[in-house]
């Protein structure tokens, strides 16, 4: 069974962390992953930096620009992750934009992911219909789970369609926004959480966008399986480097 | 074979809607409604009326006698430079502001490079009394001060794009991010035949008035609707899409798309996407795209801000790949000389974008009996400083 599915069965709220590979320093990737696991993080999204990250707010944009400037590229990331399964056992997900994956070759990319022990892929700008028509079979062949996003604006019919197409979890974008921390969740977001919960989807939901601290983590996971923190963790890395990851994770739960 | 968009939003293998789910409801709303709205009699009537009374259409099709004599062929200029605001861009913004009203939107966003589309958008927002935010790269704001001032006078807010290379591609990213953050009340007026489906097709349809008029006007002047060649410059490709539109599926008509070679195709400072691009995804569309081997989008260069885009609309990618259109790239120097030549021969100072289209006359030999229509997409007022600097005027 895929590590993601196994993890989703655990009776706890999952904390997932996103970070941009190659940031703050080019060779921090493996160390950050190992440290996050050590601190009890349940799942990690490894961000493949892109020159034009149009769904991201300033924090992740800046980390992507810096990572590219540091010299990060797809093949190098695979090299850095080559031995990661010798030390890390939690689910690892590659997250990025479609164009770098397309240039690498979708099948070649998936094959490398499988060799390394990557469990899933999130490509926000790869639409559902194109995935199903051109790439689903490839993902399946290499044992990779594709994760789709939903937002407060996603219609019920489309949520059902996405639920049927998913075999891991649904990435529930907390509000109409790009990535980045917000002050907290208002009534509207609570109503959205309730609405999705009442749909009794077959895939558990993990909330992302706007989760930055213990309060928002608790709020987001009250009615869902878990939450993803990205921008807030990157800010932490910017301010503190890779030394104090323990403190960040402990501050969340 | 048709060169128009298919029902799935593709031109051959190019196009589609490669957008994050956050944008799906917005583009889907547009996709489901745009053709229906454009075909409503009330919409058509209002659009046509505004094009006539406000934009000043039809724009003349002018027989350029001295230019024709010099190049030993029959050259007609489609005078989009005479449109209100100085370029063809306004054809599209008039259409889209009416579309936005029909969709019940009360806020408009747009991206702009040189500022022409920004001005055209700010103009129609003033006309409609709708709030307008224009994203423009910080670097472009500095080098296009007059257009920034025009947008402000027209009541628009100009927001600097501070990310990436701080030019057109980043302004487009910022506009898309704004749309993600404002999915319900806002319409995004894209300025070219780029972006996710249905934008390339919708913008092409609004611009198709250019070739529709050429047909009627050529019939009056030459007794035929069809020229032998139609020529236009291509950045994203909206003026070209309009000039080619009604001729795409007539194989006898030569279609010539002119790209900006910048300082030369091999110099690393170029915007000739057909020569330098590979298939990829930019701003929601699968198309030809200038990028690194690793799939990072690279920064193009052209003396003309309007051609300074690392991609090309999916229609044009298909025209190139299928061989339907001939693609010629023109350097900065060739374009500047062509702009000066047109000024002296015909008394018309063209936009530097359009100058690229005229520069092919030095490259390509036409027969004396050929009818060649060149789309003069914009006027040169906005480029005066560039001309001054280049020619030490």
Short structural description:
The complex is a heterodimer of chains A (253) and B (393). Chain A is an alpha/beta fold and 253 residues long. Chain A has helices at 3-9, 29-38, 58-70, 74-80, 98-104, 106-116, 128-141, 156-165, 187-198, 214-221, 231-240, 245-252; strands spanning 14-20, 43-47, 92-95, 120-122, 145-146, 149-150, 170-173, 205-208, 226-229.
Task: Give the key terms.
A: 253 residues, alpha/beta, TIM Barrel, 9 strands, B: alpha/beta, six-stranded mixed beta sheet, four-stranded parallel beta sheet, globular, Tryptophan synthase alpha chain (chain A), amino-acid biosynthesis (chain A), tryptophan biosynthesis (chain A), Trp_synthase_suA (chain A), aromatic amino acid biosynthesis (chain A)
Provide an overview of this structure:
The complex is a heterodimer of chains A (253) and B (393). Chain A is α/β, with parallel strands linked by helices and 253 residues long. In chain A, strands 5-4-3-2-1-9-8-7-6 form a nine-stranded parallel sheet. The model of chain A has no long low-confidence stretch (mean pLDDT 96). Chain A has helices at residues 3-9, 29-38, 58-70, 74-80, 98-104, 106-116, 128-141, 156-165, 187-198, 214-221, 231-240, 245-252; strands at 14-20, 43-47, 92-95, 120-122, 145-146, 149-150, 170-173, 205-208, 226-229. Chain A has a single domain, classed as Alpha-Beta Barrel (TIM Barrel), CATH 3.20.20.70. Helix content of chain A is 46%, strand content 14%. Chain B has 393 residues and is α/β, with parallel strands linked by helices. In chain B, 42% of the residues lie in helices and 18% in strands. Chain B contains 16 helices and 14 strands. In chain B, strands 3-4-14-9-10-13 form a six-stranded mixed sheet, with helices on both faces. A four-stranded parallel sheet of chain B has the order 7-6-5-8, with helices on both faces. In chain B, strands 1-2 form a two-stranded antiparallel sheet. The model of chain B has no long low-confidence stretch (mean pLDDT 97). Chains A and B meet through helix 3, helix 5 and strand 6 of A and helix 8 and strand 11 of B. Chain A: One of its GO terms (molecular function) is tryptophan synthase activity. Chain A: Belongs to the TrpA family. Chain A: This is Tryptophan synthase alpha chain.
């Amino acid at each position: 069974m895929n590590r993601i599915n196994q993890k989703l069965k655990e009776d706890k709220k999952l904390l997932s962390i996103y970070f941009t590979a190659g940031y703050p320093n080019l060779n921090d990737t493996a160390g950050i992953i190992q440290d996050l696991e050590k601190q009890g993080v349940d799942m990690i999204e490894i961000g493949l930096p892109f020159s034009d990250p149009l769904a991201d707010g300033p924090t992740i944009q800046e980390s992507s620009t810096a990572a590219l400037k540091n010299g990060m590229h797809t093949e190098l990331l695979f090299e850095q992750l080559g031995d990661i399964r010798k030390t890390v056992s939690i689910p690892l997900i590659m997250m990025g934009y479609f164009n770098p994956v397309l240039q690498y070759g979708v099948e070649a990319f998936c094959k490398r992911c499988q060799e390394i022990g990557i469990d899933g892929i999130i490509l926000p700008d790869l639409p559902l219909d194109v995935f199903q028509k051109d790439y689903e079979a490839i993902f399946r062949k290499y044992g990779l789970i594709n994760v789709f996003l939903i937002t407060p604006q996603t219609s019920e019919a489309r949520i059902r369609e996405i639920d049927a197409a998913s075999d891991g979890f649904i990435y529930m974008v907390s509000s109409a926004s790009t990535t980045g921390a917000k002050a907290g969740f208002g009534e509207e977001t609570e109503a959205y959480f309730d609405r999705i919960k009442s749909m009794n989807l077959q895939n558990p939901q993990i909330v992302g966008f706007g989760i930055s601290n213990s309060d928002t983590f608790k709020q987001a996971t009250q009615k869902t399986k878990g939450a993803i923190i990205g921008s807030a963790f990157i800010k932490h890395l910017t301010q503190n480097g890779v030394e104090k990851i323990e403190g960040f994770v402990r501050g969340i739960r | 074979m048709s060169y128009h968009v298919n029902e799935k939003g593709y031109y051959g293998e190019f196009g589609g809607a490669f957008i994050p789910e956050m944008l799906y409801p917005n583009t889907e709303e547009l996709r489901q409604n745009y053709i229906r709205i454009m075909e409503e009699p009330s919409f058509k009537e209002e659009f046509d009326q505004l094009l006539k009374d406000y934009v000043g259409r039809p724009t003349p099709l002018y027989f350029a006698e001295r230019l024709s004599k010099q190049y030993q062929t029959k050259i007609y200029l489609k005078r989009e430079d005479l449109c209100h605001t100085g370029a063809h861009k306004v054809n599209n913004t008039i259409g889209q502001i009416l579309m936005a009203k029909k969709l019940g939107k009360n806020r408009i966003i747009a991206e702009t490079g040189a500022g022409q589309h920004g001005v055209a958008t700010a103009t129609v927002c003033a006309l409609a009394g709708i709030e307008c935010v224009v994203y423009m790269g910080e670097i472009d704001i500095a080098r296009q001060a007059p257009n920034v001032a025009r947008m402000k006078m027209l009541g628009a807010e100009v927001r600097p794009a501070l990310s990436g290379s701080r030019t057109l591609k980043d302004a487009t990213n910022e506009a898309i991010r704004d749309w993600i953050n404002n999915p319900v009340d806002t319409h995004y007026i894209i300025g070219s035949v780029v972006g996710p489906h249905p934008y390339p097709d919708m913008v092409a349809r609004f611009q198709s008035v250019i070739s529709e008029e050429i047909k009627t006007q050529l019939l009056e002047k030459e007794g035929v609707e069809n020229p032998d060649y139609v020529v236009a410059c291509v950045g994203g490709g909206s003026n070209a899409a309009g000039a080619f539109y009604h001729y795409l599926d007539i194989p006898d008509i030569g279609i010539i798309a002119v790209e900006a070679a910048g300082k030369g195709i091999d110099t690393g400072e170029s915007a000739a996407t057909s020569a330098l691009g590979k298939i990829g995804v930019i701003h929601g569309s699968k198309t030809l795209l200038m990028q690194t081997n690793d799939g990072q989008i690279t920064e193009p260069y052209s003396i003309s801000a309007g051609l300074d885009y690392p991609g090309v609309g999916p229609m044009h990618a298909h025209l190139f790949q299928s061989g339907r259109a001939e693609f010629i790239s023109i350097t900065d120097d060739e374009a500047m000389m062509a702009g000066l030549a047109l000024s002296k021969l015909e008394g018309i100072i063209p936009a530097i974008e359009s100058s690229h289209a005229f520069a092919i006359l030095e490259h390509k030999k036409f027969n004396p009996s050929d009818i060649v229509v060149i789309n003069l997409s914009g006027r040169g007022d906005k480029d005066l400083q560039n001309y001054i600097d280049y020619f030490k005027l």
